[in-house]
Amino acid sequence: MDFKRYIADRIEAGDIGKDELYEMLALPPNTEMGDFALPCFRLAKAMRKSPAVIAQDIANAYARDSIVSEVSAVNGYVNFKINRAFWAKQTLDRICAEKDRYGSSSDGAGKRVCIDYSSVNIAKPFHIGHLSTTVLGSSLYKLHKFLGYEPIGINHLGDYGTQFGKLISAYKRWGTREGIEQGGLRALNELYVRFHAEAEKDPTLNDEARAFFKKIEDKDEESVALFNWFKELTLKEVGKVYEMLDVHFDSWAGESFYNDKMEPIVEMLRAKGLLKESDGAQIVDLEEYGMPPCIILRSDGASLYATRDIAAAFYRKKTYDFYKCLYVVAYQQNLHFKQFFKVIELMGELWAKDLVHVAYGMVSLEDGAMSTRKGKVVYLEDVLQKCIEKALAIITEKNPALENKEQIAKTVGVGAVIFGALYNNKIKDITFSYDKVLNFDGETSCYVQYTCARANSVLEKGGRASAYEVKDVCPQEFEVIKQLADFPSVLKDALEKYEPCFIARYAVDLAQKFNKFYFDCSILNAEEATRAFRLTLTEATLITLKNALGLLGIGVPEKM
Questions:
Q1: What would the mean pLDDT of 106-118 be, rounded to a whole number?
Q2: Of 337, 340, 353, 345, the residue nearest 307 (C-alpha)
Q3: How much is the average pLDDT of 228-254?
Q4: With helix as H, strand as E and coil as C, how does 449-470 read?
Q5: DSSP H helical segments within 202-298, as ranges?
Q6: Residues 330, 360 contacting (CB under 8 angstroms)
Q7: Which of 38, 64, 333, 483 shows the smallest number of beta carbons within 10 Å?
């Protein structure tokens, strides 16, 4: 039940509309004051009364019932208290009925949302710098699906450019097929690093690299075969990491896919009079909009990222007829997205407004930044494995007799990495710390997972109540109830702002409130009616925590 709507529809405040009153209702800082509060200061001018008088008039006129049990006026606010038993029964009944669908909705029915995320580079390391785009995009995919949308997950592979000419040059000079087959991406990266080191001494190597890339474009049999082999090796290796992270895609169309789709875009820009020549290059002038020009073709006729991204946007609109198209890409690319979004708008495409850059901050380790060219990279697979090993050591120390420790450690370790990337607002830079993400007492997935294991243990011992009734609701119980009831609105807010961190923080808050209830209130030794209610509350908490972590891509072990 939407209590805010129920309250707003019954408030009499002159000519003030019910929707406006609904938006004004807020949560008081102290639940002892009330569950919802209406500040009357904005109403003073329209109603020609002081806020205190307006609040008192509204409180006097409001009809109490079995749902809204108390209404009071305090310092220009109207405070409303919901019947605790009613709120508890309605919330628990809904959660226990909907189970793993609790919090879901059909809000997005009939709306497709393209989500471009991860977008790894062929023949380059899948490193920790790819963590945010991968888990953020995956969480947004799961969230959209949960709220009724049809998400289209797109891995816009970096499979086009001179770097492939560099790799072919390096492979033909210093590599062997056997060495690459055995060493995989790491061996390819060593060749890439060596090429850059040698090219600093012999710049003609760069000309050779450009020539090899031209051979790929011209469909030279040997060069294309090597390129496809590099691509096959990359997808095989990154596939293991995606599987560990529970990340999936519906499309793997990379940059090269749009090779034959760029010319029509260039012609369209030319026909609309948007292309201008500048030092031999073809550009769209964006000075009027406070941006540098968007380069469409270089002076040698070569395309750029913007050309391919515009072609990709048109293809996606035609193929999927998207409601929104999200690009989960680091904030360093802010200008790039503003530029090509503006170009599409200038082309007269109304759907340009539906293109969204979901910008995020950078991830680094405590010992500093990375550089692919210089060979200083931290493989994401290594980070995941290290977290799994550390989780196994902690679990073995805490619970040496636990069965399936290795599988549980994998769930805990991988979850810790994902949660560490999603707990803060997406735009913040993150310094990744193994000790911090694996803290079982901190604001981490480990803490939430451990709370789930605790709830599961209670239910194993006490059983799930087949029926329950609600009489009195103590403060600790009510804090959990309110948090549980808020889950659907948290999900809607997270989707609207593209912020999975709202879900991560919600999970920690719910776990904290449940643990306070667990330690303050006896569950298994309570009298029968109270015991049944508290067991149901425990089950509802477990369901909701699982749903929250699931939307982040994190599993929940039954025991820890």
A1: 97
A2: 340
A3: 93
A4: HHHHHHHHHHHHHHCCCCCCCC
A5: 204-217, 221-245, 262-271
A6: yes
A7: 64
Residue type, 464: R
Which carries the bigger pLDDT value, residue 261 or residue 218?
261
In angstroms, rounded to a whole number, what is the distance separating the alpha carbons of residues 189 and 169? 13
Query: Residue 397 — very low, low, confident or very high, per pLDDT cuts 50/70/90?
Result: very high
Q: How far apart are CA 511 and CA 548, in angstroms?
A: 11
Q: Domain map of the chain by residue range? A: 3-82
Interval 473-518: pLDDT, tens: 999 999 999 999 999 999 999 999 999 999 999 999 999 999 999 9
102 and 547 in contact (C-beta within 8 Å)? Answer: yes
CA of 95: how far to CAs of 92, 539, 540, in Å? 5, 9, 6
Q: For residue 189, what pLDDT is reported? A: 86
Q: What is the rounded distance in angstroms from the CA atom of residue 361 to the CA atom of residue 426?
A: 6
d(CA 84, CA 480): 12
Asked if residue 59 lies in contact with residue 38, where contact means CB atoms within 8 angstroms, the answer is no
What radius of gyration do the chain's Cα atoms show?
28
Q: pLDDT by residue (tens digit) across 25-55?
A: 998 887 788 999 999 999 998 899 999 999 9
Classify residue 192 by burial, with Cβ atoms within 10 Å: 0-12, 13-18, 19+. buried
208-219 tens-digit pLDDT: 998 998 888 788
The answer, yes or no, to whether residue 369 has pLDDT greater than 60, is no
Question: In whole angstroms, what is the distance from residue 528 CA to residue 542 CA?
Answer: 21
* Span between the terminal Cα atoms of the chain, in Å: 35
Q: Which residue has tokens 């953020």?
A: 136
CATH number of 3-82: 3.30.1360.70
In the chain, pLDDT over 90 holds for what percent of residues?
76
**Alpha carbon separation from 447 to 501, 505, 555 (Å, rounded):** 16, 12, 13
Angle between helices 501-520 and 528-552 in degrees, nearest 10: 160
The one-character DSSP state at 276 is E
